[in-house]
Amino acid sequence: MRVPQIIERGRLIVGVSQSMNRLGFRDPVTGDMAGFEVDIAHEIARDIFGDPGRVDFRYVEGADREDALYDGDVDIVIRSMTVTRTRQATLEFSEPYLTVSPRLLVGRDSGITSEADLSDRTVCTAENTTNAQSVSQDIPHGRLLVTQTWTDCLMAMQHGQVDAIFSDSPVLSGLRAQDPNTELIATDGSSDVYGVAVAPSTVRDTEGLVRQVNATLERMRGDGSWTRSYNRWLAPFMGAAVQPEAEYRSAEESEELRDIRLAARRTPPSDEPGGSGAPATTADVPQSEGNRQ
């Protein structure tokens, strides 16, 4: 039994977004939570309880994801969380469930065709994201507007306050679905991955939970449920894709990361303006705790 406390409670508590179209949002017609990341939560509950409905969704903002895990408010967070080396110092991650690339969302008549057109334009990103840091450090732009949510960025663009929105491809796909007068523009940035976030074992015993999440993601790969969910929610805007392959840390790498996490607990990292860490490199991720079991 991998997750006895969750089984005893009778439900899985998952931190999600309630306003990220196509990923995690409340369906205005049914009132139910829906989206690609919501589907993953239901599949994890299916494997734990035999019932995909035994999920208690908690809404967490980007800035609150780590606190929600450390405080035990949620068991896991599935909320467009890019796996970076900085975040791995304080959180555990599952194997990756989605490969993402940076994109621009612009108006169809904006005249913007690449990053090179942003030098005198206003760009919008959401706070507490790696995207905000990427724009600040790597992309020449005129002005940066940082909002609380991605929906705020879309509203700002619709009101003529910004010229472009910079984010990951699935986030912008959801915004694109809400406004047909926009289009997605490719950028030169490298791809990253999203992972299910869990409190590290230095905070509480979560190794069994990580193994359970990884087992579900592997099962979704094998039975086609990942592909069916992706095709429903994201393929119309992101195109065809395959589930990312998993890589697992060696025992030595896990021990090294445990030491880093213990040090991070003793000396909390200072706040980084606009983001939660530098983009991951191939050497950093994707790697997850535990064995495939």
The largest sheet is: 5 strands, mixed
Helical fraction equals 25-40%
Multimeric organization = single chain
Q: Numbering strands along the chain, what is their spatial order in the largest sheet?
A: 10-9-11-8-12
Mean pLDDT: 87
Beta strand %: 15-25%
The topology string of helices and strands comes to HEEEEHEHEHEEEHEHEHEEHHHH
Poorly predicted ranges: 266-293
Class based on secondary structure composition and strand pairing: alpha/beta
- Straight-line N-to-C gap: 11 Å
Question: What secondary-structure arrangement, pairings included, does this model have?
Answer:
Elements: H1 4-9, E1 12-16, E2 19-20, E3 24-26, E4 33-34, H2 36-49, E5 55-59, H3 65-70, E6 76-77, H4 85-88, E7 92-100, E8 102-107, E9 122-126, H5 130-138, E10 143-147, H6 150-158, E11 164-168, H7 169-178, E12 182-186, E13 192-198, H8 207-223, H9 225-233, H10 235-238, H11 251-266
Parallel strand pairs: 1-5, 1-6, 9-10, 9-11
Antiparallel strand pairs: 2-3, 3-4, 7-13, 8-11, 8-12
